[in-house]
Write a structure and sequence with these properties.
Length: 236
């Protein structure tokens, strides 16, 4: 199986399963829109546009993983670190929709599958790990960069295993499930390392210049410890 990227083409997964995941993706995105309304403000809205544009541009640049195998930034973890999980999922989904409709990158019937894997599963896995790591790592550019690297690797692998589930439910080729799972996990671990380096460099740079624009630094900032209150009184 030649793996070129996470995008699934038409016909790899059968129609009923593709339709099921299209419905699930639409419902999940509607929920993201609802939750994102609480996050969007004058600072986050333009940042979301920049993140989507950056992910779109970087996804056009493939890097070699193995002979005949290349990958590109998925962007889920990068998005959640900068703009949060709900807006981040919408940013990645927007990129995938534009790529599908304008550049035929990923099949139209497989759009729900691709959104589920890259915009939902990968983003969710990345955010959960970011939430855990940012509670123990320092809230510095280096700390958030390390967080982005680790979470990116995990998020990409989780997204790839989303395809394995979909293939198990409705795959149309003769490849065994173990072959698909092993190939996807191995290749996308390497892709995740490349993505992690890009994401870590990007978020660390933004954190040095404008830490207020990094969602993870704002969201997981430690609450200030209250000073003890001393009550004193005099004897009259």
């Amino acid at each position: 199986m030649e793996t070129v990227a996470m995008h699934i083409a038409n016909g790899i997964v059968d129609g009923p399963v593709s339709a099921l995941f299209a419905v699930l993706a639409a419902l999940a995105l509607a929920f993201c829109v609802w939750r994102a309304r609480a996050d969007l403000d004058d600072r986050l809205a333009p940042m979301a546009g920049l993140v989507a544009a950056f992910i779109f541009a970087v996804q056009m640049l493939n890097f070699q993983v193995l002979p005949g195998v290349s990958g590109h930034l998925l962007g889920g973890t990068l998005a959640v670190v900068l703009v949060g999980p709900w807006v981040g999922a919408l940013c990645v989904s927007t990129v995938l929709i534009v790529q599908c409709l304008l550049f035929a990158d990923g099949g139209l019937t497989a759009l729900g599958l691709n959104i589920t894997n890259m915009a939902l599963l990968g983003t969710a896995a990345g955010y959960l790990l970011v939430a855990a790591l940012m509670r123990v790592l320092p809230k510095t550019p280096a700390g958030v960069g390390a967080t982005a690297f680790i979470a990116s690797v995990v998020g990409v692998v989780v997204a790839s295993q989303g395809f394995v589930l979909e293939y198990w439910l409705g795959g149309t080729t003769e490849l065994s499930l173990s072959t698909v799972a092993g190939t996807m996990a191995g290749v996308h671990t390497l892709i995740g390392i490349g993505e992690g380096l890009i994401a870590a460099t990007t978020v660390a740079t933004v954190a040095r210049v404008r830490p207020d624009l990094v969602y993870a630094l704002r969201r997981f900032r430690r609450a200030p410890v209250a000073e003890p209150v001393t009550v004193s009184g005099g004897v009259g």
